[in-house]
Amino acid sequence: MTALTRALWSSPPDGTRLELVRRYRQPIEQVWAAITIPARLTEWMGIEWLGGEEPLTAGAAFDYRFGATDIESRGHVRVFDPPRVFEHSWFENLPPATIVRWALEPDGDGCVLTLIHWTGEKEDGPRTAAGWTQHMESLAAHLGDTEATTGGSMASWRGWRDGYAAAFPIEARRDGRRILEDGVPALRFERPFAHPPAAVWAALVEPEALARWLQAEATIDPHVGGRFHLILGGASHMDGVIRRWEPPRVLEYTWPESAANGDSVVRFEVFEETAGARLVLTHILFGGGDMADFASGWHWHLDCLDDALEGGATEFDRPRWSALRQVYAATL
Questions:
Q1: In angstroms, what CA-CA distances link 212 with 67, 79, 207, 281, 302?
Q2: What is the arithmetic mean of pLDDT over 139-143?
Q3: CA 226, CA 228: separation in Å to the nearest integer?
Q4: Is the pLDDT of residue 323 over 50?
Q5: 234-249 burial by CB neighbour count: b if 16+ within 10 A, else e?
Q6: Is the Cβ–Cβ distance between 287 and 264 less than 8 Å?
Q7: What are the angstrom distances between the C-alpha of 88 and each of 50, 80, 163, 184?
Q8: pLDDT in tens, 65-118
Q9: The model's pTM
Q10: Could you give all domains of the chain from N- to C-terminal order, each with its CATH number?
Q11: Rounded CA separation 82/102 (Å)
């Protein structure tokens, strides 16, 4: 068996946990060398190593840049127990840091690799699982498995991501997707909230609530044809017109902005769920525009919506937004 045998996502009280398991035909010593020697890592992970030339040991830097992107991970080796366990921090330069653990067990003439990724946030499970699946497939090809592929294409990655999205719970799917709506490019987000639809609706249309999660001053005329005016960041004006007003179910308005190359349309749909509500955001970009910029912005603001529903407010976090933008620029 050479394919991935298990991929699990869970959300224990202290964070989230992603586990992927794969059997390799090669003995444990060969696989250990491939995952811990920097020169080997650069070959199958497609990275530029930034951690220096010294062999890896506990406490050593684990720094690299993803190929063809500006995304860097600045971490440290936490556990180094040859040839069984290798654990390091990941994206330590972009808080909050996460932990990746590689554990090897002999299995006949081969071995089984269990990769566990712990993170404090309910990050995008399908996207992360697809990335690690792609790496684990590339590792198999690097080790000489003729049935494996490098898995390097975006089409392969998106196929794995969509497969995991169908298998994982909605809590693991926090990222935005590029879709087509009637042939027009659009972004789509789907988020669960532990609040009733009426509370989520209020957060979308009440100026005080919008100030907390969208960081915008809002003027709203609550009817079809009414004004939906936002002052974003105290300077940027978005003067939209309401196209659909169906409380507490559907809100849709135009979003004219130069970054969207003209008019675009934002639609919020609120669905009642057993544990609260599910929000679907669709941003239809008729003129195209900077989709990674919109995706990172909406992603970060929707993260803030959780706090807003509890009556809190979140200050703009530029490093977090920048990290999201890098990821979306590389994956959309």
A1: 37, 41, 9, 18, 11
A2: 93
A3: 7
A4: yes
A5: eeeebebbbbebeebe
A6: yes
A7: 15, 9, 27, 42
A8: 887 667 788 899 999 999 999 999 987 666 667 899 999 999 999 999 999 999
A9: 0.84
A10: 4-169 (3.30.530.20), 175-331 (3.30.530.20)
A11: 11
